């Protein structure tokens, strides 16, 4: 009995270190260390990030010094240049959008050097409806002897709700805001002709 007990203790003692050794080695191979690292959050899905569009009529803006339509009366013409965007998926499923805009102010025949305010609007739209809108007024200086000046704007953290992240639009425009698209005109229903022809028609 005593010999059997010693044998049993020897088996238990031998089996213990082997189990510890297995965990030790597997941790090194899997995690590069002896301990298991804390669990990490699942990797977020890559965000949908559409190209930046321009609002209807928002690509350029003219300031006139006389009658409209006369090119000689143009004081300044503001226009958009390069557009860029960056989209980041957030933990709650929404998307944070950063938009960069470059443009210029060009002096016209009736213009003179000076400082000019450029109104700019950046919008996020979903199903043709504005979800988020930001308006800016940035200043551009055209120095004496120069014909144009340049501006750049960066707008951050434009949030797209999680339910709208698969199909939204980013738009930029010069002016006070995004112009709504005109709804198609409703056509008047044509009265249906009677089965027997026009009323009162001679037989």
TrEMBL record:
<feature type="compositionally biased region" description="Low complexity">
    <location>
        <begin position="190"/>
        <end position="203"/>
    </location>
</feature>
<protein>
    <submittedName>
        <fullName>Uncharacterized protein</fullName>
    </submittedName>
</protein>
<feature type="region of interest" description="Disordered">
    <location>
        <begin position="177"/>
        <end position="203"/>
    </location>
</feature>
<feature type="compositionally biased region" description="Basic residues">
    <location>
        <begin position="179"/>
        <end position="189"/>
    </location>
</feature>
